[in-house]
Each structure stands twice: as C-alpha cells, then as structure tokens.
Amino acid sequence: MIQASYIDVDGKRRRSPRKAVEAVRDVLGDSSDETVLVAWDGASVAVTEGAHEIVLVDGSTIAFRGAKTPPVPLGYHSLDDSLMIAAPLRAPAITGKQWGVFLPLYALRTERSPVLADLTDLCALAEWCDALVGTLPLFATFPDEPSPYSPVSRLFWNEVYADVGEIKGADGAYVDWPAVYDHKHDAFPLTPPPESWVAARPYVEDYARFRAKDGSSVELHLSAQYLFEQQLAKLDNLYLDFPVGVHPNGYDVSAFDVFAHGASVGAPPDGFFAGGQNWGFPPLDPNKSRAQRHLYFRECVSTLARAAKVMRIDHVMGLHRLYFVPDGFDATDGVYVRYPSEELYAIVTLEAHRNGCAIVGEDLGTVPRPVRTAMRKHGLLRSYVYIFDPDGTAPSDSLASLDTHDTATFPAWGEAELRPALRKLASSDAAVVMVNLEDLWGERRPQNVPGDPSAPNWRRKASRTFESFSRDRVVNTLLDEIRDLRRAS
Q1: Please, which residues bridge with residue 50 across strands?
Q2: Domain limits of the chain?
Q3: Long-range CB pairs of 337-341, under 8 A, 24+ apart, other chains included
Q4: Which of 248, 384, 335, 265 is nearest to 1 (CA)?
Q5: DSSP state, 29?
Q6: β-bridge mates for residue 338, sequence order
Q7: Cα separation of 445 and 146, whole Å?
Q8: Measuring CA to CA, which residue among 351, 283, 304 is closest to residue 91?
Q9: CATH topology of domain 89-488
C-alpha cells in the first residue's frame, strides 16, 4: 500500500525519506479485514469453496455452494459478510461527437444577476448554446475560502448559486464571497422541504446543523439545499468536476471517519513546481474506506453522477495512488500510497451507469502507464489540452480543449491563431470538445493561478455579460462553425 519509491518527472527512481514513510504509516488506519469483491458486468467470480449466501441490493437472497458465484444483477450486494460490487466494465459512452462551452458560474455576468450568477442564469446559458455546459464544481464552500476544489462537502451544494431573486450588492469585477453569502442568506425563503426528500438524504440534517454553527439556522440550510436541487434538476446537459479532496475543516472530514489525519494530499516536484505541492486537504484513508465498504466514496460519486451528463474526475490518478505529505515535512518528501483501484473504478462505472453519465479522467502531466490502461479498459475519456500539444491530434477517446482553468488562457498563451486551433479541435476525432468562452473575446487573465495565494483566484468575473457575448456576431459564428464541424466529423 505504501510505496517507498516512485519514478519522478525526469524518469528517475526517487526514494521517499524513511522518516516520511514511517510518518505516513502512522497516519493510516489499520489494514481492514473487509473483503470487497468486484463482479464485472455481474459475471461469476471465484470464491472459497463452500456454502455461501448473496444478499442482493433489493433484499432478496441467493444461496449457493461451490467456488464461483452465480451471475448477479448490477448493484451493491453482500456476499456472506463482504461487499460485492456488480458493476459494468465500462462507463457509458459518449454518443456522436459532442461539444460544449465552459465558464465558471461565478464568472458569468448577466443583467438579471449583476452580483452573482445563479442556476437560472446557467439555464439561460445552456439554452443559448444548446450543447454541453461546463462549469467549475458546484459543491458547498466556505465564504472566505471559495476554491471549488476545496469544498466543505462533496455531498452538498453551494447554496449561494440557488435563484432567490435579486440580492443586494454591487456589480464589481470580482465576487465578494462573504458579502454574497450574507445577502443570499437574508433572501432565502424558509420553505421546509418534504419529509420524503429529507428521508432520502440521510446526512442532510446533520450537514445543516454543521453549517448553522456560523449563526444561521438549520431550517435555512435545509431549505437552501432543497431549492438548489429543484433548480439543478432543470439542467440536463452539465459537464461537472469531481474534486479530488475536501476542506480539512469542512463537513465531510468532521462527519466521516475515512480520512488520514496528519497528512495532506499533494504532488511531487515537477517542471512547474520544483518544491513539490501541498494541497492542504487530508487524503482518503484506503484502509478506513474499505473497512466502511467505501460508503463515503459511493455517496460522493453518486451525488455528482445524478447531476452531470459528463463528469470529470480531477486527478484521476487518485483512483490508483495519492501523494501523501506528512505534517511537518516538505512537499519534496512525500510518499505515494496505493488505493484499491479496481474497487473504486467499479463504484465509478456503476454510478455512471445508473445515472447515464459519461466519465472523463483528468490525466494531464506525468501519469503512470497503468492509469491510462485502466481508463481505456473502463471507458473513461482522457483529457487533451491543445496548448500542451499544439502539433498533436486529440485522440478519439478524449475530451479536448484549448486550455483549462488552471492554465494560461489561449490568448495569453499566444502561440497560435484562435480560429484555426478551434477548427482543428472541432474536426478531430475527440469524443467531446469544450470551448472556454473567455477565449472567444481574447481574455488574457486566468481564472486560477496555481500556487499563487496573491492572485484573485476563484473570484474574477468575465469581462463581458451574457447579453453581450450571446449576441456577438464573432462569438456566434465561431460556435456555429464548431457545431457544424462536430456534426460533420
């Protein structure tokens, strides 16, 4: 489970310091006796010779004797005292050549929502482009720490994006998150959600109590989560990210004993960060997760798969291994810890199948070969970014884009013309092409500058309003060309 060494960005074997390895060993929970069996496509799997009983997800039972299980329907079952995941081998495939537009929801400026865009504005954007709509994670965050990649929870939504009508505030160039939270909470209608809705979400009341510690009310957060879900259900073509972790002081870490306390997730040194990276949130403990039958991970994946048409798994290598940086150690001295990848892929493909959701893996940078082999095996699309490989061709099993929210914008990169680059992607074999709307009007400022706390990350609004760019002849001509090329290819 613990890797004492790894191959670095230069192709050389690098050994983690002995004290760092010992520190990681200390923060991990005891090895679990829990056995998890994966039955791909519900087919028979080998078991110990003898008498066994399978309790299916619907409560019915199958008793059998022998060394192989009978075929079972897809779902989470129990084999004797073990979890049995019957999952499709591959996630749902993209039909045809798809395309879409991308813009963080907080960056979307509209005349009806000058302070902060909401889900109604996102619906308007979706109706206008009539394609996939990609945005950054919509999970709950703290007002003073708005990074969508450090959410309070991967089970509950950022209620400030719910439409509650006009709110107070000024239309500034940057989102004033604490002020928005205050004004939004003042405007929320306290409408008790149906009892059946609450009963179907076993953690929602506990979450509401956690958020009410700031002086707000439990009723407010219950109402807000219900309202958000009602409005989110109107969007059926979303491309959403699944963050690799959660905030160390958030709800999930406090409510679920599945995290490795005493270490943070990070990345080893590379060409961009010579000192490595410490991302500041606790890693999932593979031993604790398995001991609890991966219930937390299952709930998180299911939550996003229900909302997204396409789900992108941030740092997909995390299904295989994560880089632990023990407390008190530099990011250069981290240690890789392996995860039960087959079990995690089974959860991903099962939840994707249940919800008709295609899966993309963020596999940019240095990724071990077995990761991409597993992605192909299980039908996960790769990520292709033009500015990293301008002379290459987007693979057919990829989601392609000119840039990402973590890179320079295409205009700032400035080494190619926009229209030919867009046409190249649109006419490629890529399964999906996503267009950063800000590229279309020459925006040079990024949404995020990784590793730079002085940058206005996760706050900058777009320089143009929806009403402006949606009527812009150049913008519409470019998107029409992309649509036509996607259909033709």
Answers
A1: 66
A2: 42-87, 89-488
A3: 337/1, 337/2, 337/3, 337/24, 337/28, 337/283, 337/286, 338/1, 338/2, 338/3, 338/286, 339/284, 339/286, 340/36, 340/286, 340/290, 341/374
A4: 335
A5: P
A6: 321
A7: 18
A8: 351
A9: TIM Barrel (3.20.20)
Tell me the pLDDT tens digit for each residue of 114-159: 999 999 999 999 999 999 999 999 999 999 999 999 999 999 999 9
What is the rounded CA–CA span in Å between residue 374 and residue 429?
A: 21
Say whether 123 sits in a helix, a strand or coil: helix
How far is residue 13 from each of residues 3, 6, 10, 109, 324, measured CA to CA in Å? 12, 6, 9, 48, 17
The SS3 call for residue 189 is: coil
Helix 473-488 × helix 418-426 angle, to 10°: 30
* Angle of CA points 174, 189, 255, to nearest 5°: 75
Amino acid at position 373, single letter:
T
Pairwise CA distance, residues 240 & 56, whole Å: 31
Rounded-to-integer distance, Cα 93 and Cα 307, Å: 17
Cα 240 from Cα 133, distance rounded (Å): 9
Please give the C-alpha separations between residue 292 and each of 49, 79, 448, 461, in angstroms, as whole numbers.
26, 15, 35, 41
pLDDT digits (tens, 9 = 90+) for 160-186: 999 999 888 878 999 999 999 999 999
